[in-house]
């Protein structure tokens, strides 16, 4: 007879993980929803991706290609990469988890920046390792702070470039300086989820560094500029030895057939991707200027979102969030990132951008 006083106990450290809370998606009753909380593209997916997705409906009885060959081939051709060094996942989140699972152990340390993506901490703790936070400077990754945090126990560094939720980036020269300062047994994980949006001459996603180093990987996603967040598609480019390790652990059918087909079609539709980038460049600049006019500080962003700062008293971020929600505009609170006095706002459609500014203008002018 079993002892009902005993219950299964998770591995040490698992209960230290805070639940990841995604951006809100509901408007106030009677208000049109403008969802600006999850960095989704307002242009939606490529029509070619939609067509490819729909075509899979006639073959739902068949297992997908476990190697996602069609998708990997499209990625390789578009970016000029070796297909054998590409692995695809159920969103880049799965790949980040896999890297941590395969290369971190209890007693190891992994570093990420002060306002880095919350999934890094989750992945590190889930692997039984210890997260180490490196301070940022002006909401931007500080290479010297990361290097100063390296110890003999360090096995991994996560670098979001551009970073979420700040929208800032570091030039490729700084990424190379970071890599040069790391021991060879430390894996540098470059998370380039927002790379397609960046319009800076000194920026690179990391492809060339990965190609020339044995301890660097780069992850990318189809959830942002490609508009395929619902299908959960990510990819990683890395040394063949690292990819071989990840292949041993990933699920055999971790991407469904619709994701593979739609992802390949979207990757090849370069005109659509460029149109999305152009829309973002235009309306990001407009939003930054308009929010500045009403007295709000905006961290300069190269991504498809803005980090907007509010006073600690009076016109606070919490108060602004409530005012926006009441009018159907949903943005992201970022207290969990150590930014309680800021809100992250996606660059949405023209209508959504104008409505966001309209509501915040009224909020800032109203009584405290």
From TrEMBL:
<keyword id="KW-0368">Histidine biosynthesis</keyword>
<feature type="domain" description="Aminotransferase class I/classII large">
    <location>
        <begin position="33"/>
        <end position="360"/>
    </location>
</feature>
<comment type="similarity">
    <text>Belongs to the class-II pyridoxal-phosphate-dependent aminotransferase family. Histidinol-phosphate aminotransferase subfamily.</text>
</comment>
<dbReference type="GO" id="GO:0030170">
    <property type="term" value="F:pyridoxal phosphate binding"/>
</dbReference>
<dbReference type="Pfam" id="PF00155">
    <property type="entry name" value="Aminotran_1_2"/>
</dbReference>
<dbReference type="InterPro" id="IPR050106">
    <property type="entry name" value="HistidinolP_aminotransfase"/>
</dbReference>
<protein>
    <recommendedName>
        <fullName>Histidinol-phosphate aminotransferase</fullName>
        <ecNumber>2.6.1.9</ecNumber>
    </recommendedName>
</protein>
<keyword id="KW-0808">Transferase</keyword>
<feature type="modified residue" description="N6-(pyridoxal phosphate)lysine">
    <location>
        <position position="224"/>
    </location>
</feature>
<dbReference type="GO" id="GO:0000105">
    <property type="term" value="P:L-histidine biosynthetic process"/>
</dbReference>
<keyword id="KW-0663">Pyridoxal phosphate</keyword>
<dbReference type="GO" id="GO:0004400">
    <property type="term" value="F:histidinol-phosphate transaminase activity"/>
</dbReference>
<keyword id="KW-0032">Aminotransferase</keyword>
<dbReference type="InterPro" id="IPR005861">
    <property type="entry name" value="HisP_aminotrans"/>
</dbReference>
<dbReference type="InterPro" id="IPR015422">
    <property type="entry name" value="PyrdxlP-dep_Trfase_small"/>
</dbReference>
<dbReference type="InterPro" id="IPR015421">
    <property type="entry name" value="PyrdxlP-dep_Trfase_major"/>
</dbReference>
<comment type="subunit">
    <text>Homodimer.</text>
</comment>
<dbReference type="InterPro" id="IPR015424">
    <property type="entry name" value="PyrdxlP-dep_Trfase"/>
</dbReference>
<dbReference type="InterPro" id="IPR004839">
    <property type="entry name" value="Aminotransferase_I/II_large"/>
</dbReference>
<comment type="pathway">
    <text>Amino-acid biosynthesis; L-histidine biosynthesis; L-histidine from 5-phospho-alpha-D-ribose 1-diphosphate: step 7/9.</text>
</comment>
<keyword id="KW-0028">Amino-acid biosynthesis</keyword>
């Amino acid at each position: 007879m079993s002892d009902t006083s005993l219950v299964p106990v998770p591995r040490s450290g698992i209960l230290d993980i805070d639940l990841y809370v995604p951006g809100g998606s509901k408007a106030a009753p009677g208000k049109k929803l403008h969802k600006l909380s999850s960095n989704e593209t307002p242009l939606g997916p490529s029509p070619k991706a939609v067509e490819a997705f729909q075509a899979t409906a006639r073959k739902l009885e068949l297992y997908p290609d476990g190697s996602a060959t069609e998708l990997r081939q499209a990625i390789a051709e578009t970016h000029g990469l070796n297909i054998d060094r590409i692995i695809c996942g159920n969103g880049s989140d799965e790949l980040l988890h896999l890297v941590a699972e395969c290369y971190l152990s209890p007693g190891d340390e992994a570093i990420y920046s002060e306002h880095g993506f919350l999934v890094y901490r989750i992945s590190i703790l889930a692997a039984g390792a210890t997260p180490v936070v490196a301070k940022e400077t002006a909401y931007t990754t500080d290479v010297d702070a990361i290097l100063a945090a390296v110890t003999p126990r360090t096995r991994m560094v996560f670098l979001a470039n551009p970073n979420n939720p700040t929208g800032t980036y570091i030039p490729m020269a700084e990424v190379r300086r970071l890599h040069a300062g790391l021991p060879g047994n430390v894996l540098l994980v470059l998370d380039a989820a927002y790379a397609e949006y960046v319009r800076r001459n000194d920026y690179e996603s990391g492809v060339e560094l990965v190609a020339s180093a044995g301890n660097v990987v780069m992850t990318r996603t189809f959830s942002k500029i490609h508009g395929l967040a619902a299908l959960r598609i990510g990819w990683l480019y890395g040394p063949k030895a690292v990819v071989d390790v990840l292949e041993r652990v990933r699920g055999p059918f971790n991407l469904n057939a619709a994701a593979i087909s739609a992802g390949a079609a979207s990757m090849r539709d370069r005109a659509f991707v460029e149109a999305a980038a152009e829309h973002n460049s235009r309306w990001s600049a407009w939003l930054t200027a308009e929010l500045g006019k009403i007295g709000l500080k905006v961290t300069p962003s190269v991504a498809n979102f803005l980090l907007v700062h509010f006073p600690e008293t009076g016109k606070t971020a919490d108060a602004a969030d409530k005012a926006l929600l009441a009018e159907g505009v949903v943005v992201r609170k970022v207290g969990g990132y150590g930014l309680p006095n800021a809100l992250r706002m996606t660059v949405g459609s023209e209508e959504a951008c104008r409505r966001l500014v309209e509501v915040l203008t009224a909020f800032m002018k109203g009584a405290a």
